[in-house]
Please model this.
Amino acid sequence: MSLGDQIARNLPYLRRYARALTGSQATGDAFVRATLEAALADSELKQSLEGGRVPLYRAFNKVWSSAYMDIPETAGGDGHESAAHDRLKSVTPLNRQALLLTTLEDFTSEQAGEIMDMSADEIEQLAQEAVAEIDKESATSVLIIEDEPLISMQLEDLVTSLGHDVCGTAATRTQAQEVVADKTPGLVLADIQLADGSSGLDAVDDILAISSVPVIFITAYPERLLTGDRPEPTYLVTKPFQEQTVRAAISQALFFGSSRPLG
Model:
């Protein structure tokens, strides 16, 4: 496989990580572009990327670490994105990186340590501190849109174990509409492909037309959302998932108060 093909295969996931780290699709993509430009300008760095995901994320980390303290506010940005930037200032960036790398991106502590130039023990400590910081957020009500009963039950148990209430579960777009008609959730966990052939994307659009709420997509088909053709969700978890990954995504989404995919 050529270097270009390797990078292309890993790029959607690096963009996902960058969006979650910065709280903005536009800002995250800007850092990814800067990483690729740095690689083109440095033959040694470019050659290192032949090693796969770890060196690619390591290269991104160097760019991000050199600039994250000076991210400017987006001129004319909406309250959603401004709030995300404001909240970023109150959470240790290293903690967030360690948490996202070991949960959302599913790197081992050793691999995350290589990316961040730290030991595995340091990475684990940073991730624990991140969870403690983010879990200070208040509890909320959660709507679960999932057509597989066992997965729905698993998510319901996870949500309640984190101190949140489940305001309803839905296996179809219509059922989701019925739940929201009775009570507006504070968070939505949604699959894409639902029981009757309806779309979780449409179900989420219905909800966002009524109220801005954080949304986390949990799907076996992440490539359907990582196309670059439309605003992409900041919080996207791939099935089969680890509960720690979902927990991290919930904490992140509530922390940012995400309402719509950030553009």
In short: The chain is about 55% helix and 10% strand. Residues 3-22 form the longest helix (20 residues). The longest strand covers residues 165-170.
